[in-house]
Amino acid sequence: MLHRLESLESCTYDGMDMTTRLKRKQQYYVVQNNNPVELCASSLPQFQGLIGNNLGSGQMVELKRPEDFLGTDDFQEFVNLPVAGPEFGYSEKLDLAPPEAAADYCISWTSSCQITTLNTAVMKEEREDMILEKMESTTGSGRASFNKRKAEAVADHKRNKGEGEGESEVKTKCSTEISRNSSKENSKASEVQKPDYIHVRARRGQATDSHSLAERARREKISKKMKCLQDLVPGCNKITGKAGMLDEIINYVQSLQRQVEFLSMKIAALNSSVELSVENLPMKEFPAYVANFPAAAKLPEMAGLPCFELNPLQKESVKCMLNESMHPPQTEGIASASVSISEQSLSSSSMTQLQPFSTWNMDPQGLYNMYNMGFH
Amino acid sequence: MASIVPRLEPAPDTCPEFKRRKRRIPNEKLASSHSQHNQGIKRWRTQREQHIYSSKLVQALRRSRLTSTSSSAAREVHDTADRVLAVLAKGTTRWSRAVLTARKTARHKKAKVAANIRLRKPAFNREKRKKPAVQKKLKVLGRLVPGCRKLSFSNLIEETSDYIAALEMQVRAMTAITEFLAAGGPA
């Protein structure tokens, strides 16, 4: 008997510690399956006896073992008894801990026994909530600790509702052991079976208001997406802050759009020539070909590119081509020139805005090339 | 068992349920679109996608070649390229839908509207202007990405990331096409 009592006291001491420490921090609930559980299980009957004794006058309640309640509807009763304890001046007689703590660890003790019997892995958060709600409803919301837990309960309650009624019934049978945990398990908690909601957990030392939780979730979502963008946009690794990042993003999008426009112009120019080369031009259509060429020459002007020097160059190349075409036997010279030109075109085809001049320079030469090939 | 369940939900019954209904639908959409979206961005990086795009673009260009006028050939090529890109997006993103539904006349209307706004009440603007630099930039970005002017921050960022990935692929494909054409084409 003695040694049992001693063990009980040690248990209760642990319980006290846990609950008081809990009050100082913001909540963090995780089920802990350790030794204290077994200890509780053994000492519970004695504990119950204690409670029964201390409930005092007129309170001859028969406290059943927790396991008895597993299959019955009396669980509510059972849980309510220790919870109602403080209201009856239970704490004064028991002198173990402040009222809320007593209620807490009463619950925790009962829960710890049931942990061994039930599957705890999945149900932990939900159980906490259920217990918290019960506590709330029975003891009133006036107490500070309950208020904190209420916020958490409300925040997590959405999750619970989504689980379905069947699970909630099972939850009511069990309860949780409230224990501390390190801040390793942070922010977004595990996705429960039915991922209807984004599960957020309050971090250590942060407000548990539902609004702030939602805001935090939103902010984290945004930062995730910004990181995703950072990977896309080159040179954004060093920049921190939304404004700088947005600047870079805007610049990059603008440069990409300009590149696309530039390339489309090029393709348009090349397109016309390719068309002609496929049709295998006879000499008569030569003026038509020339007529198209000034149109292509106008394109850089329209684009507003800084390649004003090109126009005279292009005109020269037109003249060149006219001259060359008049003398088809000179193909060898042309071929060598075209080879060098094609090499140049391939090398300069890497599109950067720093080289508009060279690429446009290539263009008439490219056309010239194609005309040649078409001619053969 | 049945008695316990209603007992548990006396006070918080209406409040979280209401919240649940409010928040359930957007969260569901988020969950589904988020998974889709992630896979959506990576598709623009694959070689296969680029090949598909370039072949479709070449086909479209051949078709439009016959009807093209010499003055606006570049613009037509640009439009064709954008439209093919949007088709490839399969309507999952906002910008792609906006590109496909955009009309040619819409371009000219922009300048007029912008000019009118400046004439209206400059005094009020100064009072209310708190210089939210981020907000300004968000607007600019919204104008850059087609069809994304009135979007929330997070949605805009999503669209932008997809748009950037698509643009990069477009640039790569069009560069390849120009190289191909410049090197001699289908002779």
UniProtKB/TrEMBL annotation, chain A:
Organism: Hibiscus syriacus (Rose of Sharon)
One term of GO molecular function: DNA-binding transcription factor activity
Phylogenetic classification of the source organism: Eukaryota, Viridiplantae, Streptophyta, Embryophyta, Tracheophyta
UniProt keywords, alphabetically: DNA-binding, Nucleus, Transcription, Transcription regulation
Compartment(s) of residence: Nucleus
Domain of life from the UniProt record: Eukaryota
Keyword hit for Glycoprotein: no
Region (Disordered): 136-195
Protein name: Transcription factor bHLH49
SUPFAM superfamilies in the record: HLH, helix-loop-helix DNA-binding domain (SSF47459)
Pfam families in UniProt: HLH
Major localization class: nucleus
Biased composition (Basic and acidic residues): 149-174, 182-195
CC annotations in GO: nucleus
All copies of domain BHLH, residue ranges: 206-256
Automatic annotation (TrEMBL), chain B:
PROSITE patterns: BHLH (PS50888)
Tree of life domain: Eukaryota
Cellular component terms per the entry's GO annotation: nucleus
SUPFAM superfamilies per UniProt: HLH, helix-loop-helix DNA-binding domain
CDD domains: bHLH_AtIBH1_like
Source species: Hibiscus syriacus (Rose of Sharon)
Disordered, as annotated region: 1-47
Lineage, top ranks: Eukaryota, Viridiplantae, Streptophyta, Embryophyta, Tracheophyta
InterPro entries tied to this protein: bHLH_AtIBH1-like, bHLH_dom, HLH_DNA-bd_sf, IBH1-like
Gene Ontology molecular functions: protein dimerization activity; transcription cis-regulatory region binding
Annotated protein name in UniProt: BHLH domain-containing protein
Residue stretches of biased makeup (Polar residues): 30-39
Main location: nucleus
Keywords: Nucleus, Transcription, Transcription regulation
